[in-house]
Amino acid sequence: MAERSTAAVDVADSGGEEPLTAEAGKATADGAGTEQMAGKDTAAASVDEKGAAADASPLELHSGHKLARRYRLEECVTRLDGFSSWRAVDEKLRRAVGVHVLPADHPRARPVLAAARSAALLGDPRFVQVLDAVEENDLVYVVHEWLPDATELTAVLAAGPLEPHDAYQLVSQVSQAMAAAHREGLAHLRLNPGSVLRTESGQYRIRGLAVMAALRGISTERPQRTDTEAIGALLYAALTQRWPYEKDAHGLSGLPKGVGLIAPDQVRAGVHRGLSELAMRALVNDGATASRQDQPCTTPEELAKAVAAMPRIRPPEPAFTPSSAYQRTTYQQGVYGQPPTRGGQPRPGAGPATPVPPPPPLQSRTGKALKWTVSALLIAALGLGSWQLADTLLKEENKSSPSKSTTEKDDGKSGKVVSKPIAIQGAEEFAPDGKPQHADQAKLTHDGDASTLWRTAGYDAGPVLAPFKKGVGIIYDLGSERTLKGASVGLHYGGSYTEVSLYATDSLTPSASGSDPVSSFKKLASGRNKDKAVDLSLTSAVKTRYVLVWLTALPYSPPEQYYTHPYKQAITEVKFTG
């Protein structure tokens, strides 16, 4: 499937369905590919049910139609098997949403409602959230989140296979999320590159949990094996940019016919061996065999444990770009000229050296004596001048306060004590409600680069975050217990105002409970500012190792392409002084 705009990727939990303009044959082929991915235990709806779906009255819906006098339909993305999926706008909260719509007499209407309500109760932020599930005016519709900053894995893989670290994050996050869903009795059954989204921060979100299977009438006796094999197929595709079956699907080429399912590291050179074996352990449900004598993974829980047991794959080191400070500078001849030779050899590309002629020396004994005499006089004059200048300054200072000695004045001249910067050793986002903003970006707030940042989510009301959230923030590790006197928080947005508070905590991941998660922490300072920085000073120095920077109010800024909600903020650099 060709890459759509990033605004459209989260429209309808389509799970890889073709858009409205796609041919029926193409949609059928996609369905067949999905059944193959789901495993031999997966069965589609019965023939009678499909016939009933086909006979269902077509929905008389169009752009501009409003559901519940609230959800305005904007663009139909999918129309298939008697249901349609739309990009819509929630006019009450002024945000984009996705909507699935089908007639109330559709044979799958009841299962869809039940699946949507069950998925909504899960409340796991790793899944695209179901916001509403309603039967009204002979229609059943399911409203879900819209993620404007997310991209389908289909579009990501169209650009090439993932780096080992990205593939590791994909299988780790998706397997953990599906393990949590299965613990609550929920399965996906249509997990494919179209149902996995990658956000701008590198987090993976799963859409269509339980709902897409209900819309398509898919069921199986072994849902855990089906979803585990689907995760294995996602990892296989991420490593090889190939779909692990003979048929092409999801914009990816299938494997050559007749060769069977071969390991990813045999399909493409340079594939991480551990991840290749992990994909085969998950795909063993379809007859694959791991290259090592490891047990197959038949549930998402087993797969998540196998991922956790692997040595952690670190992100690649950033490419080094020489700074302009290290680039060779050409000076004009005769002005601090840097010789273009190194070790007696000319530098590559350097022109011939042009030495600056030295002044003619004084040859005679008289000349040498005169030279030393002049040098001695100059040294004496400089020393005398320096002494007289220092004596004058001391006298002027004593005049202003004759009762104090020079030493006393130096110690208490302005009543200020020089503050020294405190190095930050680590940072973790603090999300007591279990819904982090962008946890992987916390380290960017103390990397010395003001162009990198940690973003909050966007909100429709503000500046005060409550009652949506009590606050958002990051906990910093100073390495050891240090004397803290102040902090400077660099911000990305100006605007109405940003309110920031400092708290001392007992660890990077403190326990927090109750309606006010910071009530058990010691408050050190607070302040607000309309500018792009908030400077905080403690009334008295405090010794602590862990410091929470807690934002409770975010400024208004105009909506951006990927950040449509107006009240938001981003921290660029945090500095502490002691």
In short:
The chain has 578 residues and is α+β, with helices and mostly antiparallel strands. It is 27% helix and 23% strand. The longest helix has 36 residues, at 365-400.
Mind explaining what this structure looks like?
- There is one protein chain.
- Strands 14, 15, 16, 17, 18, 19, 20 and 21 form an eight-stranded antiparallel sheet that branches.
- The protein contains twelve helices and 21 strands.
- α5 (164-183) packs antiparallel against α7, α5 packs antiparallel against α10 and α7 packs antiparallel against α9 (273-282).
- The chain folds into three domains: 34-145, Phosphorylase Kinase, domain 1; 151-309, Orthogonal Bundle (Transferase(Phosphotransferase), domain 1), CATH 1.10.510; 421-577, Galactose-binding domain-like (Jelly Rolls), CATH 2.60.120.260.
- It is globular.
- The protein is of the alpha+beta class.
- It has helices spanning 24-38, 47-55, 109-122, 153-158, 164-183, 211-216, 223-240, 264-267, 273-282, 300-309, 365-400, 406-412, and strands at 42-43, 66-67, 71-80, 83-90, 95-103, 130-136, 139-145, 151-152, 196-198, 204-206, 219-220, 341-342, 345-346, 421-422, 426-430, 454-455, 472-491, 498-505, 522-529, 533-553, 570-577.
- The longest helix is centred in the middle third of the chain and has 36 residues, at 365-400.
What is the CATH level 1 assignment of the largest domain?
A: Mainly Alpha
Q: What is the CATH architecture descriptor of the largest domain?
A: Orthogonal Bundle
Total count of domains: 3
Helix content range of the residues, please? 25-40%
**CATH homologous superfamily classification of the largest domain:** Transferase(Phosphotransferase) domain 1
Give the CA-CA distance, first to last residue: 55 Å
User: What average pLDDT do the residues reach?
Assistant: 78
- Round the Cα radius of gyration to an integer and report it: 33 Å
CATH T-level topology of the largest domain = Transferase(Phosphotransferase), domain 1
Shape, principal axes of CA atoms = globular
Q: Which structural class do you get from the secondary structure elements?
A: alpha+beta
Strand content: 15-25%
Please count the helical segments.
12
Report the count of strand segments. 21
Largest sheet: 8 strands, antiparallel
Low-confidence stretches: 1-58, 323-354, 400-416
